[in-house]
Amino acid sequence: MTPSPFIRAELLRITDQRAAIAAKKAALEKQDSQLASLWNTYQPLSRLPAELMVDVVTEYARDGNAVNLAWRNLRLVCRRWDEIACGTPSLWRTIHVRTNVHWLALCLTRSVEATLDITIHLGISHSFRRTPREPLSEDLQTTIFLHAARIRSLTVRSFGHDSWGKFSNLLPLFDFDMPALETIDLEALLPDASELHLSHRRHPRVHRLSLHRVCCPVELQLLSHLRFLKISSCRQAFQVDEFLDALASSTRLEELLLFNFLRGLIGEFRPPSPSTSRRPITLAHLIHLRIAENDVRLVSMFVSHLCLPANPKVELQGYTAFEGGFLGDTLSDLLPPTAHRAAFAPLLSSSTLTDVSLSILFSCFQIEAHDVVHGSSISLHMEYTGGELQDGPMRLNQGVSDLVDILGAAPLRRLSVTGIEERPPVDVWDHLFRSFPTLESLSLSAEEPQCDMLSFWTALGGSIGDDNGADPDSVAGIRCPNLSRLELKGGLPMSQELFLEMLECLARRGERGSWLEYLQLSDVVTYSGGNVMGTADSEEEAENFANAPSFRRPRHDRYDKFSSGLTGDTAFIHQDSGMPPKTLSAFFLGLELATDQLRASIVDENLELVGVEVVDFDTEIQEYQ
Fold first, then answer.
1. What are phi and psi of 385, to 5 degrees?
2. Distance (Å, rounded) from C-alpha 519 to C-alpha 521?
3. What's the pLDDT score for residue 475?
4. Cα 242-246-247 angle, rounded to 5 deg
5. Smallest Cα–Cα separation from 484: which of 566, 574, 592?
6. What is the DSSP track for 33-95?
7. Which residues contact 530 (CB under 8 A, 6 or more apart)?
């Protein structure tokens, strides 16, 4: 039967009222929750409910993903806090075991049925030079064994040869079924731990495994279920093919860290080839790969078998000899052959790889590259033994060659080079600019104040029209036409020849439509008669600086000869020490700015302004002492 209009109207009215009440109720509940939260912020910590107190104490004691023992200090505050701490099983699950069986028993009792994170310390720690520990007592072993099923994380730190027997006494623990065990971290000087068997059947939930100097058999099925694997200095623990098979079967591995491990594998590494049946190993979920080996060849052959996703962090480190001015291995040698590089690390040829740094230090080369879009990075580090790189003539040349060989297919936009030697040749800079024409930002740091950058400005101002048919008078005919930011740091001697070459370079680029928006010259020093002039110690020396022919240019010449090589809102020339204000002012006379504005500062060791600020070239130079 169809309800009358009156009944339909009443039903509609009641429905609307209930909807309004529901809306008010939701708003009131939200407001009440906000007020309750605000109320809690004004309450003394001791008046909070026990469950909130536990959360506060746990957060106070958290160290990374684990809870340390700092919460025990809170038990001394008052009786209530002590009761709450003693009655909270989760606070007693983290146990550091040395020789005190009574403390261990207390923790096991108060943790009730909570899972356990146990760290066992054996022997002497060379880091702290502690008093030698007594052998692990049978009572202590028995107590731990009885709770094997509750152990979630087990860490064993064994120091010194005298701890071998103590570590061996713990090995039967792994014969128990440990269904809660997730993390195993073993560190011991134990070249043979054949009695230690890590099995997926007995330890089905293990997903983090760290072995340092412990050579024990590990079931390949357990390896294939790991998310984190770290192996350091474990010799003859695995066969080469077995280890590669375990990685190939891994579908969850996120972090792989290997230190001096590859050389200890049983068997011989063979590089992948079409004639072999082994297929490339795809680690689809890997986010961090780090390998450090003395033998660079082993690193290259191992990574030749790997195919990584687009977003991992990759760190490869090797060691090689440097004797008689010759390099044994280079950074390129850490990577697979060119044909396999794109499969190993797509980052190397990614169109979104934009930030790269090259460091050339006394005893090492290092390249770091970052893909800001995918959050991935690669770091290649080569340590040289048998001599310092400063003794060799190929420093920057070798670094640039490695850079081009490794990242020549990437459209770099930002590059930083640290450790430039005294007189780098023009052809090295020319090779760099030809290989990375898309550079927009370049930062260079000299190793010594005597670094002569004349060759840099010569190469940067060169033409490439003869190489690619481009018009040498157009923006397409110059090196790195998009370069808009340039930073030169670490001690730059400024001679007359260098000064004029820099201005000519900026002028040539400006005439062809390529402008610097930001120029930073840090720690500039001046040449006088071929020698570097240091900090002025008197007014007379300062006058000599100001009158140096290197910087004496009539103002009208800059309009007749130079077009603007700088543009943008502000350009900076930052001077840490050495150049007095008048010399710095004279230095600016050769630069014509599109905005006629340049700010400069001389900063002392306390980061206080002691120099000049040039506000307007044409009308005003203000000096601050």
1. -115, 155
2. 7
3. 58
4. 120
5. 566
6. HHHHHHHHHTS-GGGS-HHHHHHHHHHHHEETTEE-GGGGGGGGS-HHHHHHHHT-GGGGSEE
7. 495
Number of other residues whose CB lies within 10 A of the CB of residue 53:
19
Q: What are phi and psi of 318, to 5 degrees?
A: -140, 170
The answer to whether residues 245 and 265 touch, using CB atoms and an 8 Å cutoff, is no
Q: Is 414 helix (H, G, I), strand (E, B) or coil?
A: strand
CB 438 within 8 A of CB 412: yes
Would the CA dihedral through 213, 214, 219, 224 be positive or negative? negative
CB 570 within 8 A of CB 594: no
Q: How many CB atoms lie within 10 A of CB 476?
A: 17
Angle, in degrees to the nearest 10, between helices 50-61 and 79-86: 80
* DSSP 8-class letter at 325: T
| Identity of the residue numbered 69 | L
The H or E element containing residue 536 is: none
Q: Which residues of the chain form CATH 3.80.10? A: 93-268, 413-625
Q: What pLDDT is attached to residue 563?
A: 30
Residue 549 neighbours by CB distance under 10 Å: 9
Our CA angle for 521, 583, 510, nearest 5°, is 50
Q: Could you list the beta-strand ranges (E) of 204-262.
A: 208-214, 228-232, 255-259
pLDDT of residue 133: 47
With residue 119 as reference, give the H or E element that holds it.
Answer: strand 116-123
Total Cβ atoms within 10 A of residue 64: 6
Q: Which helix (H) or strand (E) holds 377?
A: strand 376-385
The torsion defined by the Cα of 532, 538, 542 and 544, in degrees rounded to 10, comes to -70
What pLDDT, on the 0 to 100 scale, is given for residue 536? Answer: 37
CA dihedral sign of residues 299, 300, 304, 310 = positive
Name the class of domain 93-268: alpha beta
- Report the pLDDT value the prediction gives residue 265, as an integer from 0 to 100: 83
- Cα 291 from Cα 255, distance rounded (Å): 11
- If you count them, how many residues does the chain have? 625
- pLDDT means over runs of 10, the chain (625 residues): 82 90 92 86 76 74 59 76 83 81 86 89 55 55 85 83 66 86 85 74 92 80 90 81 87 93 79 68 92 90 89 90 62 87 82 85 85 86 69 70 86 89 84 91 79 83 58 67 84 71 82 79 55 39 37 30 36 39 42 40 39 38 35
**Both tokens assigned to 304:** 């030749």
DSSP SS3 for 219: coil
> Where is 198: in which H helix or E strand?
none
Question: Considering the domain 413-625, what is its CATH architecture?
Answer: Alpha-Beta Horseshoe (3.80)
Q: Are 444 and 487 in contact (CB under 8 A)?
A: yes
Indicate yes or no: pTM above 0.70: yes
- C-beta separation of 152 from 181 below 8 A: yes
Q: Strands of 386-537 (E only): list them.
A: 414-420, 441-446, 485-489, 492-494, 518-521, 524-528, 531-533
> Which residue in 245, 176, 174, 179 sits closest to 211, CA to CA?
174
Alpha carbons 402 and 408: distance in angstroms, whole number = 9
Please tell me what DSSP assigns to residue 278: P
